[in-house]
Predict the structure.
Amino acid sequence: MDGLVLKGVSKSFGNTRAVEPTDLTFARGELTALLGPSGCGKTTLLRMIAGLEEPTRGTIRLGDTDITALPAHRRKFGMVFQSFALFPHYSVRENVAYSLTIGGMARARAHEKADALLETVQLGGFGDRRIGELSGGQRQRVAIARALAQEPQVFLLDEPMSALDAKLREEMQVELRLLQQRLGITTIVVTHDQREAMTMADKIVVMSNGRVEQIAQPQEVYHRPANAFVADFIGKANFFDGTYRDGAVQVGGVQLRASAQFRSGSPVRVAIRPERACIDDDPGDNRIAARVMFVRDLGPLREYHLQSDIGPIIVEYAAGETGPTLATGDETTVRLPPDALQIFPRAEAA
Amino acid sequence: MRFLGALYMGLAALVLSLPIVVVCGAALNSGRSMFFPPREPTMRRFGEFFVSEPVWTTALWNSVLVAVGAATLAVLLAWPIAYWLWSTGTRLSKVLAGLGSLPFAVPPIVFGVGLGFFWAFAGGLGALWAGVISHAILLMALPLVTISIGLQSIDRAHLDAAATMGATERMIFRTVVLPQTLPYTISGFFFVLVLSFNEFTVIFFVSASSYATVTLQIFNSLRNGYTPTMAVAAITFLAVSVLVFSAVARWGDLPRLMGADQSRK
Amino acid sequence: MSLTDDMHAQGRSAAAAPDGSAMLRRVGLFVLSAIIFIFCVLPFGLVLAISFGRKIDGAGWVWDFTLENYQRFFVGVLWPDEVTFLYLQQLGYSFYFAIIASLVAVLTALPFTLLLTRLGRSAQALWLVFIMASLSLSEVFIVMGWDILLSNNSGLPKLFKETGLTQWLKDTGYFQTLRDWGLANPRNVKFKTSDFATILTMSYLVWPYAVILLYPALSRIDPALAEAARTMGAGRWTVTRTVTLPAIRLPLFGTTLLLFVFLLGTYVTVTVFAAPNKHTTAVAIYTNIRGANLNAPFGAAQAVMLLVAAGVCLYLGHLFNRRSEAR
């Protein structure tokens, strides 16, 4: 059996298009993150995969089977919900065994299996607890165990970490990734948190406004964003709007040399990551006078917020990296190396 | 300021309990007439009410029959309407829920008169079962509201979760919807029970004097003056109400049922 | 977000009913609708239909289409030779008692409910049990209790006399005032029959309802609003006047209206506590349908008029609500 394939899948609610026609392939055993801001259609896409929402158009295939018309309870993809959706009227064990008992498995066997699963998510001995007695992290483990109990072919998670606090979130991301790799199960995670996606995913699908913006591996999404939206959404970036002419971008009165090929006179948007901009005396291209407006020292990294002729620029230095020592109000020069500049086409109106 | 508040609440409680206390005290009178404070206190009237006086024991039995029957019937009627309203929200379901609450919303005397006419034609006037149905219809609004509150409190994600684990709609209903709304259903049942127990106007019209519930019996006796036995009835009814509502407060969320904001304490 | 929520609901119901239960479901819905129509709508239709019927002396009534009963209600049987407003006057007393009693109930229940919502959750539950118990207590018991309390030879009048309060009132001259108000006979204070006793009992009757109806609205007021006002220098009373009251104006009005409609139908209280010349439409309906007169069509016509009056009030209230919400 092969992976999960979406072909031309779209979803409209009345007159609003929640998901534009989308082609996606989820390889067997891989973890894919659907990443995007809220309202970008990623949850709707996930719900269509789960069978909770019917696509307006398009087909969904699992291996050789067309499952587009198959209702959720026949697909039996395990799903972890944002709120975890654990049944408060059942014990932890009964929650985990739910899919088994309603599937007709004998109670004793189902409970045995549930206990084994609880063991897997490090909640051995919690079977008799009530849901209300569990912490957020424990609830999430129960939700994961419950979704895996039916041994689903596809494992879906809808913003699984959003109910957890920041520290626990990072731990659970690692733990979930290890578990997924151990089980080798095809997994799709919906998230708006790029760190979460980068931590867990084999492949990231960046979405906005119901459209897929980029499909790539985590590092590629960061270092080679497909467009300005992705560059902005993943990590931080400085942006300047200008016009491309003969190997350089004209931003205001400043020429920025860049290695890109565009038609002369076309409007472009220039992006540079804060850690790629430099404040140094190296001779080279694209040196711009700037004044330090604000300095922020976060411990692992230090940020200089500059005001230059082409607009505000943020420059970042990691701790231990040799960098300048500047204070608010200092005049300096910022250098934007041509190979660090990413040039995207820009619609004139925008 | 805090003291004034407590004083006001205390005063309200006092006025609220004043007639109740008086009635309770009067039940202890040994003579045939009511005095407060009671003369020669005795518990004999309780025996009369529950055991020895057929007028009262029959009336009590009728009251219980009507109340339990009406509560059961009202819940059975309210459930499908509330469920339909919640799961589809169609216009027709809204109309049905509105019509179902109508009898409770108008002055009871008008509905009582109407039901009196209705049963005269349908052939149930003066029959106990007609009384049961009448109360069920009159008070259906209560389980309709409590069950709707219960259904709305179900997280829709729970239904989706159950579906992704292989549950059909019927299974979801049995394993998620029903257990989570059970407290609300029971609350609705008890609300009807208590209000039917105490209802007077509608049962007055539909009973057509051929049987008497306790409230009717008391009304009939109003002209002949009070007897301490009537006060025993009042105490019994009050005790039932307090018990029922305490149970609802203990096992079902009374403040929430009364519409308090859940998010705050 | 709400759009997608709706869609989820729809998607679910569309995905539902995969088995052949759709037909069964349709039949069930039809039966349910029929039951609701027969029991919840038909009785009101019958009242309306019979109100156009005609009474036959000594033998009940027959179907007809006569406006006689309504004519009688507005101007009397002998119109145009003789005009009587007796029945309109009864409706007037229905309104009079109901308006004052509902206002008294709401105005006294308001501070109580406000205080109630500020208590802890378990204390609130305790109070609610008490309130619900007294709410469900039958009108006949309540009338009985107040009757004992207000009767001339027991309860309060006796208490007045034995504590010497009556004598003190006589000495100070207030007794004459009470007599002018109809609350005293030459020997002692008397509350039966009086408007005072009627209104007292009627407000008592709906007071728990007032609390229950105000409770949701009051418990939903965001305490941060009042706190914000206080940080801007508003005193406790100013907060109540400028923040709390405006926020609950509509529920306050709605509650009064509901209680008023409910009280229009009060029967036992009025028969026991109101003077016979101040009896209300509700009493007249009883007398006509189950009592001495046995004039079902006229009773039905009065019930219709009571319902119309209530309906008009509710409609006006609805208009008023809409207008103040639009502002």
